[in-house]
Amino acid sequence: MYAFDSYVALGDSFTEGLNDARPDGTFRGWADRLAEILAGGRTGFRYANLALRGKMLAEVVEEQLPIALDIRPDLVTLCAGGNDIIVPGADVDAVAERFESAVAQLRAAGINVVIFTGPDTKQVSVMNILRGKVGIYNAHLWAIADRYGAKVVDLWAMDALHDLRAWSDDRLHFTAEGHRRIALRTADVLGIAIEADWREPWPANDEHATWITSRRSDLEWTRAHLLPWIRRQLRGESMGDGLAPKRPQLTPLIEAAPEPPLNGLVDVAACNPDLR
Fold it and tell me: Are 117 and 141 in contact, with CB atoms under 8 Å apart?
């Protein structure tokens, strides 16, 4: 017996799947991986992913939440607010209040909800200055989950994410392996049987950063990622401008195979319109 027949993912780039790239350049990500686990090969399982990179919490609430409330799937995952709290001067308490309103609406509609704490950035150079704000936001998220009966995937406590190999070069998003482990952890929280273990230790790593290589990495990261982010903030632009969600509608994750003709016969009329 399967616990869920339909799933809608809401959020920003984390849920869209950056930077878990497929060969064709599209992003897979933990939510797609989770959907595959939940489907279990069933053609009747339906999935939508409305998440889009760069979205602020207000945009998620205004653009994505109403769709989920209208669809009323069995399960909704909601991860948002991270783009808000990294902005200098952001009011973390106000962000959490808006997040709580979204969770309250989903739970009032009878929808199972899973939310995610922010990950611990202690090991991530430069980004570790956000630990305090993330920690405060996480405390709010745990309280919200307790008040409304939502489940929590505690990314902060995932030791597997404390390894820098779980993080992409932009220091904001996860690698394919990071996404894989997050999907497994989420399935675990939902009580879904999984064969792989998200706690599995990383292979031994003989590479050790020196002070010089770390500073060079910081400079490259500043040039490639931080400065473009600052420019977008000043211009009021977003990474998601002009883009659309990758799965905007609740549709089967696995398409059913077409039924063969009766008795294995070919429909001649369908092949030749002149015979109709």
Answer: yes
How far is Cα 44 from Cα 5, in angstroms, rounded to an integer?
7
Model pLDDT for residues 45-80, shown as the tens digit of each residue: 999 999 999 999 999 999 999 999 999 999 999 999
Residue length of the chain: 276
pLDDT, tens digit (0-9, with 9 covering 90-100), for 146-204: 999 999 999 999 999 998 899 888 878 899 999 999 999 999 999 998 889 999 998 88
Q: CB under 8 Å to 137, separation ≥6 — which residues?
A: 81, 85, 92, 95, 96, 117, 118
DSSP class of residue 242 equals: T
pTM of the model: 0.86
Is the preceding peptide bond at 138 cis, omega within 30 degrees of 0? Answer: no
User: Is beta strand 75-79 parallel, antiparallel or unpaired with respect to 6-11?
Assistant: parallel
Measured N-to-C along each axis, helices 176-189 and 29-39 cross at an angle, to the nearest 10 degrees, of 50
